[in-house]
Amino acid sequence: MERTAFISTTIPYVNARPHLGHALEFVETDAYARFMRTKLDDVFFLTGSDENALKNVLAAEAAKMSTADLVARNARAFQDLQSALRCVPDHFVRTSVDPLHLAGATAMWRRMEAAGDLYPRDYEGLYCVGCEQFYEPVELVDGRCPEHLTEPERVREQNWFFRLSRYQDDLLKSLESGALVIHPETRRNEVISFVRAGLADISVSRSATRARGWGIPVPGDDSQVMYVWIDALTNYTNALGWTADDPRYQRFWADATQRVHVMGKGVIRFHAVYWPAMLLSAGLPLPTDLVVHGYITAGGRKLGKSLGNAVDPDDLIARYGARAVRYALLATFAPFGDGDVTEERIVAAYNTDLANGLGNLVSRVTSMIGRYRGGVVPAGSLDGGLGPAVVTAARAIDSAMTGYDHRAAIQHLNTLVGQANAYVDEHAPWHLAKQAEEADRLDTCLLHTAAVVRALAALLRPFLPDAAEEILVTLGQPASYRLDPGTWLSGMAGTAVEKPAAIFPRIDTPAT
Ligand SMILES: [Zn+2]
Known about the structure:
alpha/beta, Isoleucyl-tRNA Synthetase, Domain 1, six-stranded parallel sheet, four-stranded antiparallel sheet, elongated, binds zinc ion
C-alpha cells in the first residue's frame, strides 16, 4: 500500500508584496514536505495566493490598476520569493484564475446547500476590511482590530449563512479523539474551549456590490459572491481536482496518511473550525494535522505592511543570500512561538553554525583526504567510534521533525557537527599522517569523518537542500543519497573527493 501525504501553506492575500512572515511559513512548510518525502512514497506540497478578496480590490484601486493585473503581479512576487528560498511546491493555486479552484468552490457550495446547511439571513456586524472578518466587540482592542489596529466598519446586509452550529459535536469528537491534531497543544486546547463554548452560524457570502463584483458568484444568487472563507479554504481540495475525478485528489487527500495545513496563529479558527465543518457538511475527509506557527515580530509586534514595519525578505536575500535567510528562519525561530528578527541574528546563526561549524568540517575533512590519501576516501578496518553519535542524531532529528520542531532538529544536527569536529581534533590526523605505523588509524579517522559529513548532508537536506547536494557532490556521492543509520558507512570507501569548495563562505557582520 502506497503511503502519501498532503501539506499546504495558507494562501496569502496578494494585495502587497510578501514580507518576512510569509517567508517563514514557506520555508517551514517546504522543510516539512522535504522531511516527509524521506519517509513516504510521495508528498504533495500546495501553496498559492488568495486573490478573490476585497483587500485586493482596494489595493488595486489605490494603485490605479485592474484587480486582475495587481493580483497577477503580486502572485508572481510570492512565487519568486519561494523560488529564491528554494521552496518547491507541487502546485501554486491562484484562486482568481485556476479553473479547478472555481469549479471546486462552486461544487462545495452546492454540496453544503444540498445538505441543508446554507440559508439567507440579515447580518449586521463590525467588519475589518484588512482581515475580511466580522469581529465581536469583545474581540477588539480599544475598539480596534487586534491584527491591524484600525477601527472596524459597521456593516449590514443580507448574506448566506452556514449552519456551523450543527457541527459542534462532530468537531469536538475529531479534536478530542486526535483524528484532527493541532500543534502545539496549547492551540488545541484553545480551539476545544472555543468549540465547547458554542458555535454560532457564520456568514459565507457578501453583497456583490460591496465586493465590487470581484469574487466567485454564489450559485443561483447573482446578488452575492462567496465570502472569503468558503472560497479561500476550499483551495486545498480544489487544487487537487476533487470535483474532476482527478487521481491526485484520491491519492493525496482521500487516501493520504496525513493531510497537513501549516498556518499562522491568526487564522487558526478558520482552519480548525470552519474548514473541518465545511468538509463534514460536504462529506469529505478532514485534515489530520494543523501546524500553527507564531509571528515574526519587530519590537514585539507582528510584521505587516499595514503596521509599517514589514521586513522585506528580498532585501535580506540580496544582502546576505537566500541560504543565510532560509537557515536563520529555520534555525532560530521557535516553531510555535513569536520571535524578533534582526540582521545580526541572521548573520550570527549562519557564521556560527554553517561557516564555522559544518562548513569548516566539510572543508577540513575533504582537505585531509586530498592531502593524505590523494583525494580518495580510504577503507578503514577499525571502529571509529562515531556510529552511535550518527544514530542518536538521526533519531533525534526524526523525532523533532515529526513534531514539526525544525529548530530542535537543527540543534541536533549541529550537535553532531560539534561531535565530528571534536573527533577530528582528538584524533589529530595531521599527527597520525607523520607516523607510518598509524596508517590504519588515519584511514579509519578519514573514512569515519567522511561518512559523518555525508550523513550530515542527508540530514541537512530538508533545511538547506542545495547545500546538502553540494556537500554530497563534493564527497563524490549521488546528490540523492539517503541516510540509513544502520549502514551509514557503506559505499564511502574508494570514492574520489573533489577539491573542497567554499559551501558556506563567511558573511561580513553588518555595519552598525
Ligand atoms: Zn483587521
